[in-house]
User: What shape does this take?
Amino acid sequence: QRLSLKKWHWLLDIGECRTSQLNSGGSYSTKLTIRCNGNRVRVEGNPSRWQRMDNLFGLNTLDDCVDIYNHVLARYDLPAFTKNTRLFHRQTPDGKSSSLFGDGAEITLIDWTQNHMVGQGKEASFIRGMSSMQIGRGREPKLYPNGMTCNWGEASEWAMTKLYCKAFELKKHLKKNKRKKDGTTLEQLHYVEQLIAYCEEQGVVREEHSLRQKLLKRHNLQFYGLVTEQDFHAHLTDIENAMKTLHATHDTHQSIAHQLVEAGAVDTLRKANATLSYFTMWQHGSDLREILNRSQFFEHKARLKQIGIDISRPFDVSRMCPTLKRSEM
Assistant: This one.
């Protein structure tokens, strides 16, 4: 799985520093924010955009991101981020569980991105189809009114997942750049226009995972130097798993029953037909929670979810996704 890092927040404990906050600007309207409260340095910003005109293909390793941050910190005579080599238990009040801290930099937020090619003009259909699915532990989808963005867990303190049309996003930024009186050259505008044309031709949909502090601490992923890129992969599979189960919805009811058998959701066609009957009721607007008891509802929900149908959400024909050929970039 090809993933690229997009945005990081870092913490670094230091001795003494009198600078409270500063913004370091790079080329192409990029910015990193450095904060210091006297004994800790914090850097926020997107290293994959630093001194680059775009981040369609971002950085691929943790060390690549750290190198950029350290380059900027050196400009202001601030200490560089270093790798953790040891972990220690922090003293806590009686009755409180112990927490860990290291002797190096700590990650407080990290974004991972991946691009998918779904075909020219099919981005909205793909995103709308995916918006019919819960992902992870019951995270509800939020489809934006423009149909070009859907996210799961937007307000979560643990993780947020997003799908969006890359060309649509670039067009919004292009309009902003054209309104600027200075700072954007014709060469840069032409480059972005070419990039938009490429994304439209390929039908690029961006997958983004924002792993936040609570999740990182829960799984001890915050210690730079003691974790690798592979350690994060287990937390980046929700969209891929949903894609594997998403099927075309123009199939006949009989084929849905057979899909349940083929997917291993049931072991007999009789059970598949029973689930199919409740699927039909759901499709006609019935709330199955009012018809089935709790255990029956979740039993049929689990079966249908294996073929990409989520009966916990009201049926919406506009969110039914056609069969699309998807390629990774």
Q: What stands out?
A: The chain has two domains: 4-244, 247-307.
